[in-house]
Input
Amino acid sequence: MTQMEHAYLSWGLGGGQRHKLYGDDDFAGGAPETIEADLSQYLTEVQRADAAVAALPSLTSPGRGHGRPLGFTLLTMLDEYALHSGQAHMLRFAALGQIVR
Amino acid sequence: MAKQAASYARAADLAAQTQRELGQRSRGSLHHRGPSMALGGTLVVQEIADWQQVRRQPPKRTSPLTCRRLAASRSGLRTAALTQPSDRLRARASRREVGATGEVSDGGLGMRGVRGRSKRAACSLRTPSGRQTGSAGPLIRILTVDFFRWHEPAPSGDERTDLTAWLEYQRHEFQRKLRDLDAEQLARWAVPPVGSRCWDLSAT
Output
């Protein structure tokens, strides 16, 4: 979701330099040692994304990066979060070895 | 509806109690998510000096705030911001911090409607995985990212407000998936990745 926040919102709407946070492999996996850094990076990206959203005057305003309208982009992000939250929901059950809601 | 109303009433009582304790007011802008309960989340890394002590003496479930106070006072709980906390983190941390002495301060960020199991999870001061992750050594680190459940945003009449409110809600739901998991579990593959040795039949 860090990459999603960057591609759709912070860069997509705000413009600037586009990054591939995970190189060419989004599924390279993580490491316990980098959890804090990963989470910090995600939240920093969220902060940038919020700033990019706030900078656009209306839902029809095109993003400065990808050029798509703000409203469309927000809907896309909702879809991304719904998708990946569902996956994370199952993954955490698998990691825990039990269903803990 | 009656059950939900009762839940709201309990939440409001808890909010009032917490506010009295803190002497601060809740954030009114969160009314659309249900009663504001002055116990917002904080993104901090908690370092617990003696985890075993916390496990032996679980806090009583009077309120999430009290739980944290009790556990903090018993275990020498202390917190540290992330290595380089962003402004957002600082802002959130300023709303509520568990200090080195276990003191809790709250700038009034609402807990946004806590319900049974999630409240219990928030109160729970076990290891993130519910098990001991190592010896009773010091400084087991836990990430707490406002694991309280929020109510879904209600329609505001303004499309942009609704979209951003739902985005915030979905972000929060995503972050809540971290609860109960320790760092090792967070990084663990649920299934071996495609191409790994055990799934790559051509490698055998």
